[in-house]
TrEMBL record:
The keyword Transcription applies. The keyword Transcription applies. PANTHER family: HTH-TYPE TRANSCRIPTIONAL REGULATOR BETI, HTH-TYPE TRANSCRIPTIONAL REGULATOR RUTR. It comes from the Bacteria. This is Transcriptional regulator. PROSITE patterns: HTH_TETR_2. GO terms for molecular function: DNA-binding transcription factor activity; transcription cis-regulatory region binding.
Length: 218
């Protein structure tokens, strides 16, 4: 029996390229962009993380810009329905608003990678920020505006702009659960661990709702 040729050390087997699921590729890509930022991420580094050839990413996704868009769209498609489905609920406007804030605070405990990416990209004016805002943030904001208007027609709502409310949810509650080492150093303790995060998210939602919806006078 003939000896099989030895492949070069450090190079992944070519058949490994075909065995990598696209969801795995996009998941690792998104996590890396969220952790290192766009400029700090290279296709070569990603290929090493995945154990595939550098050429695989070029063939499947093209340029780094194209991979970033694919990874962001893929990740948001996973995460967005958890909150956005509230807009379609068969309930009165106030109930939907309360449920939306509660869902968003819970969402923040589960999606620290998205919060990290938006924190990085939200600080600079780039084509990537344009993509995030145009594709995801503005459509959500428009639906939130409509929901708040519907609530205002039935009861008082304390004035706060939707950009400010969304910042409290994402960069406020979201940052709290994504920057766990920071919170632990400040004494948050078990509030931010996985066993207690849901309970703490409920407290934060109740706090925000108390400020947003004042008691209705009899």
């Amino acid at each position: 029996m003939l000896d099989q040729p030895q492949r070069s050390r450090g190079r992944p087997a070519q058949n490994a390229d075909h065995s990598v699921d696209e969801d795995v590729l996009l998941g690792v890509a998104f996590a890396t962009f969220a952790e290192r930022g766009y400029e700090g991420t290279t296709l070569r580094d990603l290929s090493k993380r995945l154990g595939v050839s550098h050429n695989l990413l070029n063939v499947r996704f093209g340029r780094k810009e194209d991979l970033w868009v694919r990874a962001v769209d893929w990740r948001m498609a996973q995460a967005s329905p958890f909150v956005e489905s509230v807009f379609e609920e068969r309930a009165d406007a106030e109930s939907r608003l309360r449920h939306l804030v509660e869902r968003f605070c819970l969402w923040a405990t589960l999606n620290a990678d998205i919060v990290a990416l938006t924190n990085v990209e939200g600080c600079r004016s780039t084509w990537r920020l344009d993509h995030i805002v145009d594709r995801f943030v503005l459509p959500f904001q428009h639906r939130l505006d409509d929901l708040l208007d519907a609530v205002r027609r039935t009861r008082p709502v304390n004035h706060i702009s939707t950009p400010a409310l969304m910042a409290l949810l994402v960069q406020g509650v979201g940052y709290y659960f994504s920057a766990v080492p920071m919170q632990q150093r400040l004494g948050a303790g078990s509030e931010v661990d996985q066993d207690h995060a849901t309970e703490q998210a409920g407290r934060m939602a109740a706090f925000l709702l108390a400020g947003l919806l004042p008691p209705v006078q009899p």
